[in-house]
Amino acid sequence: MKKLHIKTYGCQMNVYDSARMADVLAPLGYAPVDAPDGADLVILNTCHIREKASEKVFSELGRLRPLKERDGTMLAVAGCVAQAEGAEILARAPYVDVVLGPQAYHRLPELVARAARGAGAALDTDFPVDVKFDHLPAPSGNQGPSAFLTIQEGCDKFCTFCVVPYTRGAEFSRDAAAIEREARALVEGGAREITLLGQNVNAWHGSDGEGLGSLVRRLARIDGLERLRYTTSHPRDMDDGLIAAHAEEPKLMPFLHLPVQSGSDAILDAMNRGHTVAKFHEIVARLRAARRDIALSSDFIVGFPGESDADFARTLDLVREVKFAQAFSFKYSPRPGTPAALIDRQVPEPVKDARLAELQALLKVQQDAFNAATVGRTVPVLYERAGRNPGQLVGKSPWLQAVHALAPAAHAGRVLATKITAVAPNSLSGTIVDSQLDGGERRSA
Ligand code: SAH
Ligand code: SF4
Ligand code: F3S
Hints:
- By secondary structure, this protein is of the alpha/beta class.
- The chain folds into 3 domains: about 1-125, Rossmann fold (3-Layer(aba) Sandwich), CATH 3.40.50; about 135-370, tm_1862 like domain (pyruvate-formate lyase- activating enzyme, Alpha-Beta Horseshoe); about 380-435, CATH 2.40.50.140.
- The protein is about 35% helix and about 20% strand.
- The strands form 5 sheets. Strands 2-1-3-4-5-6 form a 6-stranded parallel sheet, with helices on both faces. It has a 5-stranded mixed barrel with strand order 15-16-17-19-18.
- Helix 9 (about 240-250) runs parallel beside helix 11 and helix 12 packs parallel to helix 13.
- The termini are far apart.
- FE3-S4 cluster binds near residues 79, 168 and 199.
- FE3-S4 cluster binds near residues 10, 47, 79 and 163.
């Protein structure tokens, strides 16, 4: 048995890919371990989205180098930094054995074997994404009650700040029948919730042109599957069929991550987001009309080049108007090769810091208020795994809140009505009030 350690950075698509890499290496006798010490192969699955994320790779490689010298550990770099800077990795860290981009994971066994033969470092950053999905093995089925399923990759939107179109290539939708097969296998393996993934997941379309709403309805028919989610969506691809699915399909959870980035039309335009602030508000209104209890999450960038105090004030206005249950916010990070990095009017770092602090304070107040409002309510929780304290399980509310409750281990994988009793900074506590609820039976909130 050989030991495999995979360290994952970045988005959920990388989490999914890391699991697939472990699956593709299993037949070669590699079994996952939690730490790099003593591993035969270490894979860094990297993220290129912001400068800090990218730089982590080189510092981590520096830390791993002694392991390689001591134990002969093989080092591989996968993911978006590998795709964007493959040659530079081999130049800056020549002791790396394998560099492979996100579309080449099915070739991992071959590349590892070649490196093991001492044939020199192997680099594969070719692009044909369809080949990747055709050649990866089906998920091994030990993913637990909540599983990820990548249905779409890549991005054609070319927001001026973003590297994803360059690291993940053009938009590609997987075939609906293949997705359904994978979803059924996940459910047979114990999944009760599936989160459909894509860089622009709602740009997914089937061979007949049907959209994500119709895929959601198709997957919702799978017995034993209780919950569906999808992430990350783009406002431009929020079509009528998908909004209607939120109204009509109870398995589709009432929580949506819909990045807006800025509340200023001038900045949205400079970002090439392809929609206005008014359009975003209209989409939110339609979603809320479709599903009254839908909670929203978003991504924000502060300090995009040229962002004035007035532009930033409009972002705060948007947040106050929409009210988010949760959100991620980032300082703009200039990325090599993207148009925005070439704009002269970069915002000074201290201004970015101040804006980020102000935005995060407002978002935190909204998140706390959202969580506090669930106290005293009884909500369905999908229990997933052991919690912090003995005898506890932790699960998720429909709105993606972590909920801790005292429960026997056998309740993992079940959706149980739970009365929320208290709120902590990052989770809720509750008491299970209905442990008879089982299998296909669901409670709406
Ligand atoms: N496809 C998704 C986002 C993928 S990247 C979408 O279109 O919304 C995740 C988040 O990282 C983005 O929403 C954005 O907020 C942030 N991000 C991307 N590039 C960035 C950059 N250069 N600097 C700072 N934040 C960035
Ligand atoms: Fe990046 Fe924009 Fe594509 Fe999202 S839509 S991945 S932010 S280019
Ligand atoms: Fe990062 Fe690549 Fe995901 S750049 S956010 S790992 S698509």
